[in-house]
Amino acid sequence: MNSKVAIIIVTYNGRQYITKCLASVFRHAQAPRRMVSYEVIVVDNNSSDDTVAIIEKSFPRVELIKLSSNLGFVGGNNVGIKKAMEEGYNYIILLNQDTEVEYDWLERLVKAAADKEAGIVQSMLLLAKERALTNNVGNVLHYLGFGFIKHYRERVDAWYQRAPFEIGYASGAAMLIKREVLEQIGFFDGKFYMYHEDLDLCWRARLSGYKIMIAPQAIVYHHYEFRRNKKMIYWSERNRWAALLQNYSLKTLCLLMPLLLAIESGVLLYSLFHGWLWQKIKSYIWLLAHLLSILRQRQSVQSMRTVGDKEILRHMESKLEFAEVSNPVLKWIVSPVVEWYYKLIAS
User: CA 205, CA 295: separation in Å to the nearest integer?
Assistant: First the structure.
């Protein structure tokens, strides 16, 4: 196996994690029968702590890019991806600063990517503090644009022996992207900044005919904590709509619009009673302000697609379930209607 791999880690005030993260990555250099050539590119988003000093002192092998401002997850990774592409790497791996990898993780991930149809491959993400439990076994992409984790806190034993398989979309916390995919579909959408950027990238890759997969034996431990705050809702809601408008065909959008508008009224009502109505309104303002950019990106995406929406829908979730929302109306009324509508448009 002769593969040239760039591992990109975006840091921001990451002193708590970065030493363990990089130490685990470089431990691979001492692993027996190492078969993959790799380099590490760290892009620092203008940290105000001593993250950069730690890297410069303890990890001189790292190619360190120090940004003068915080470009977010998307901007930071795009800088790293551009550098890796210029230097001729054929596999680009994105890794969060709050992760640690198993010594054989890289070989197993690259081996899974040997599938010619695979375009993006996610590592198996386990909880760093409870290493027998899953953090992310691939994200679920709902056909209304929502993205969420479905298999959370499950025993890893149930997954570890499985061969690589297709998933809804890969988590940007630990994903491999083939160079040819990036050359064909482009990098992360720069206007997303954070949240849903991995959903959008994987959607575009699938539109170009690539599989989105997970390698269950490529283990990465993630210091994951679920946080839902008003700012997160703003980013995720505006980006969800941007992804929908850019990636679906016009026919599918027209078929979906009655349901999308109905769900949107429910989201607005929910936001009113839970104190984040202003964040939702701000997402609409952003969408209007960036409408031309969305339409330009839509034109680009639709011109390069090789796969129809019926095939795309086959990889999407039809049930509307959120682990953090326990609501009988959602469970017994909304979700069944949404599932029925999926069957209607996917048939």
Answer: 19
Instruction: Tell me how far CA of residue 313 lies from CA of 117, 171, 192, 261, in angstroms.
Output: 18, 19, 23, 19
Domain range for residue 24?
A: 4-222
Domain count of the fold of the chain = 2
Question: Cβ distance 11 to 43 under 8 Å?
Answer: yes
Residue 2 — very low, low, confident or very high, per pLDDT cuts 50/70/90? low
Residue 280 pLDDT > 80: yes
Contact assessment for residue 179 and residue 85, using Cβ atoms and an 8 Å cutoff: yes
Average pLDDT over residues 84-108: 96
- Determine the Cα–Cα distance for residues 137 and 168; give it in Å rounded to an integer: 10
Which of 222, 251, 272 is at the close of a domain?
222
Please state, for a pLDDT cut of 70, what percent of the chain lies above it: 95
pLDDT at residue 326, rounded to an integer: 62
Mean pLDDT lowest among 183-187, 213-217, 223-227, 335-339: 223-227
155 strand-pairing partners = 133
Q: Are residues 135 and 244 in the same domain?
A: no
The alpha carbon dihedral of 331, 332, 336, 338 has a sign of: negative
Residues 185 and 243 in one domain: no
